[in-house]
């Protein structure tokens, strides 16, 4: 049995300046300047769509509360295009997951009425009266984590507050 070892030497370079501008993907789109209802065509190059959509999804999950919705479509000349809208939270849920709304509303109402709550308090309190099972509430807390500020509780559990 023979063993072959390959060594890769890393070259240390000196005096390479740090970039001063944002990456192209961050500065290319006007996300930060958009109001609810504004939209723009992000691309007409189908090969770029997936990367742009991932950028939109990351922005939706960043906790800023600024939500975006996208549609890939064709225009009147059958050209492919990707349009992005800034939407309200209600529009976002209505388009992305309308069946989640009763559980989201229940959780937000609980946290709003009671203040910061633990994961157990949210998932187990009044299950008979509230919307959603323990599993559904846990799924909602994960999927819509951007709606909440979290911290560690006294027993290292997660405490949720409205972001």
Structure write-up:
By secondary structure, this protein is of the alpha+beta class. The protein has two domains: 30-92, no CATH class; 97-162, Arc Repressor Mutant, subunit A, CATH 1.10.10.10. The chain is 33% helix and 20% strand. The chain has six helices and six strands, in the order H-E-H-E-E-H-H-E-H-H-E-E. It has helices at residues 24-27, 49-60, 89-96, 101-114, 119-124, 134-143, and strands at 39-43, 67-74, 80-87, 117-118, 148-152, 158-162. The strands form two sheets. Strands 1-3-2 form a three-stranded antiparallel beta sheet. Strands 4-6-5 form a three-stranded antiparallel beta sheet. 13% of the residues are buried.
Please name the defining characteristics of this protein.
163 residues, alpha+beta, Arc Repressor Mutant, subunit A, three-stranded antiparallel sheet, 6 helices, 6 strands, extended
Blueprint of the fold:
Blueprint (H helix, E strand, L loop, with lengths): L23 H4 L11 E5 L5 H12 L6 E8 L5 E8 L1 H8 L4 H14 L2 E2 H6 L9 H10 L4 E5 L5 E5 L1
Antiparallel strand pairs: 1-3, 2-3, 4-6, 5-6
In short:
With 163 residues, this protein is α+β, with helices and mostly antiparallel strands. Helices cover 33% and strands 20% of the residues.
N-to-C SSE string, H for helix and E for strand: HEHEEHHEHHEE
- Shape assignment: extended
Q: What structural category characterises the helix and strand content?
A: alpha+beta
Number of strands: 6
Mean pLDDT: 80
CATH architecture of the largest domain: Orthogonal Bundle
Strand content: 15-25%
What number of structural domains do the residues give? 2
Number of DSSP helical runs: 6
The largest sheet, given as strand count, sense and whether it forms a barrel, is:
3 strands, antiparallel
* Fold-level CATH name of the largest domain: Arc Repressor Mutant, subunit A
* CA radius of gyration: 22 Å
CATH class of the largest domain: Mainly Alpha
Give unreliable regions as ranges.
Answer: none
Q: Roughly how much helix do the residues carry, as a percent range?
A: 25-40%
| Spatial order of the strands forming the largest sheet | 1-3-2
């Amino acid at each position: 049995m023979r063993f072959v070892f390959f060594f890769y030497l890393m070259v240390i370079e000196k005096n390479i300046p740090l970039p001063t501008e944002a990456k192209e993907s961050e500065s290319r789109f006007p996300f930060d300047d958009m109001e609810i209802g504004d939209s723009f065509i992000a691309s007409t190059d189908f090969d770029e769509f997936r990367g742009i959509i991932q950028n939109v999804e990351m922005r939706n999950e960043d906790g800023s509360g600024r939500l975006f919705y996208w549609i890939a479509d064709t225009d009147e000349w059958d050209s492919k295009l990707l349009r992005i809208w800034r939407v309200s939270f209600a529009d976002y849920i209505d388009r992305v997951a309308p069946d989640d709304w009763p559980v989201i509303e229940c959780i937000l109402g609980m946290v709003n009425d009671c203040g910061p709550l633990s994961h157990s308090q949210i998932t187990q309190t009044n299950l008979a009266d509230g919307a959603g099972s323990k599993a559904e509430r846990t799924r909602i807390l994960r999927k819509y984590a951007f709606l909440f500020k979290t911290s560690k509780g006294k027993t290292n559990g997660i405490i949720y507050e409205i972001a």
